[in-house]
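PROTEIN DATA CARD
Card holder: Ferrous iron transport protein B
Chain length: 813
Origin: Spirochaeta isovalerica
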Amino acid sequence: MEQPLSQLNIGQSAVVTSVNAKGEVKRRLLDMGLCRGVGFTVIRIAPLGDPIVIKIKGFDLSLRKEEAASILVETEIKDNLKGLEREKLYSPVDTLHKNRQTDRKEINVALLGNPNSGKTSLFNCLAGAHQKVGNFSGVTVEKYEGFVKYKDYKINLIDLPGTYSLTAYSPEEVVARNYIIEEQPDVVIDVIDGTNLERNLYLTTQIMELEVDALYAINMIDEVEKQGIEIDIPQIQKLLGSHVVATSASKHIGMDLLLDHVIRVYEGDINVSKNKLIYSLRIEEQLEKLKNLLQSDSWLSSRYNLHWLAVKLLENDQLVYETVKQRSIWIRVERIINETIDIFEKSIHRDPDVVITEDRHAFIRGAIRETVQMPNKVKKNLTDYIDDIVLNRILGLPIFFGIMWLIFQFTFTVGQYPMDWLDSIFAFIAEGVGTLLPGGFLKSLIVDGIISGVGGVLVFVPNILLLFLSISLLEATGYMARAAFVVDKAMHRIGLHGKSFIPLITGFGCTVPAIMACRTLKNKADRIVTMMITTFMSCGARLPVYILLIGAFFPPSQAGNVLFGIYMLGVLIALLSAFVMKKVAFRDESEPFVMELPPYRKPNASSVLRQVGFKAGMYVKKAGTIILGASILIWLMTNYPVSRDIAEHYESVRTEIESDTTMGSAEKREMTVLAEREEAAAQMEYSLAGRFGKLTEPLIKPIGFDWKIGISLTAGLAAKEIIVSTMNTIYSVQDGEGTKSLASDFKTATGYTTATALSLMVFVLLYAPCMAAIAVFHKESGRWKYTLLMFAYTMSVAWFVSFLVYRLTLLFI
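Structure generated from the sequence above:
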């Protein structure tokens, strides 16, 4: 008897009989393997009761019960669901032998593959240090390029975004597909996870349909052998119609052989026989009609593979629809499509796109049966054992929060030692330069402006490195997807998607990539709201402010807890804001949750360090450019114009001190230093920065701030690191011992209390992000009204919450 998948319990196995979802939800479920005749087992339920995880085609797939309810299943396999594999589901196309008459010694190679297939590791292994990061034209999807020099050739490598299919579902899939079709690389390498051929070959079937020059790298071959899986490489090569190379990026196995095959394909030494899938008879008949019609359009036939174009039309691919709609033959094309839909609805009660997907999976099952020998007894793997603990119904959430807490303890406590070393180094440099230079404009600019400003930011590089390292390790191990799974029900209750949590976690590193990561959310309302609340996640640039204030106002034993509390407050405000926004301004259905839980992997040290180094390099580069310029500007604004009246007054004060015969030399020196401090404070108040700060003071005084903090916060709109460099400049003072640390000056400044420190940390946490993040937000949202709403909302929330924190702290502390 049929029943919805959502009604199954843990441990129950079943076979899919039909998928009743609509539109893109149906497309995603089909692409992930949930089609008629496919078996699976329910293996776990999230700590909050939703989503669920099923084991299907050798991998773990998470989906909400809402989506699971649209999938009908049978717990007993019926005869009409057996034997969906067919003897022959492919046909060789004419063998292509390319004799390229060219002197070009460059080969353009595109790497394509499923997420977690080891594609990027293979790219890193081949390209080494010869790589750069950019964006694909017109979109914010990251573009990784590299090259390798091999046998007189320069082989250019493009690491295309990981994708499960070439359907126009997400920006990553569109980018990958468009690159292959429009850029026409010389060779496409399909990177296949050898431990899970059945899932990975679905993308391979679509590459076969494009009829491009492709090589297939069965990756992680060391893991394949370790698990006792046997793969018949010659036979699978015959089925796919092109050469197959066994590789392991982590062990550097098969790299030279893969490059040899790339060169041989490019030079035409390898005959590339491109096999084409054979679909059901009715599908093939309709495809032939479409191809004959499309052939009459010279523009389409010169740019696209017509077989692929016809398949995509029957799959209801919206981007292909939009392309063909512009042509004069569209009316006749649409007639054939509607005719096909009508035929299938009347005969088998299924849409053509479902039948096409089923035929692909039938080919894959047949290929697996011919080429793969699994071990007699499949053992429970390490991923299953770990997930039994970290996704446990009781332990899952405490473990998640425990991991977050450990990250912040690690960032603060371990980072404190190198931070102190760097602080001492910059203080030594400032003191040394100060003794070498004569007093005046140049000395003040270099010591108080440049060294104090830039050095005050660079001392926090160790903490930034540790935070980026922690986030990169969570991503590399596969835990980040588990975090989304654990919190999805809570996110869904406030109207968002579990995947929204991934940009939020990314926001702990930097708001800019976090906002860009929101592009993976298909639903526009989800995307805009997630972008809005991502600004409340405390980026690494805010970390120096917290460390400065926590170090000045709290004992070391409480430092990690305070830091953890600040970050969790950002998460809480973000979630509450999302709930309000989805109820008031962005009412829409949330995107379905259908996501793979990848196996845990041992992080690749070189890849993780390269990623962390790249992000830290951006931070240091910002210190050497934006922050350097801002430090000089802030120094100029805090030192000019100079009041002659103030200067003359304090000159007379110093003269009086020197001429006073009642004071000893030590007392005179102390009084002179005090007079110099008072003069510096008076001159700063008279300066441009002081005047601007005075304008902001009425707005920020209720939350415990004075005009000096107002200057720092305003400067922080350019880049949050500038807050610390501005404070360094403002509070930069000299005494007989040399330059004091900023933490000491901040703590002893008149009127600055623990309440002020907490209020300032909260305001820095919640107020508008830096200009770079605002620019990216505007680009991603595409509307000024959203950008202005974000700015106004974050500023309002920051003021209100800081006011509450300040007033409550005054009451209880």
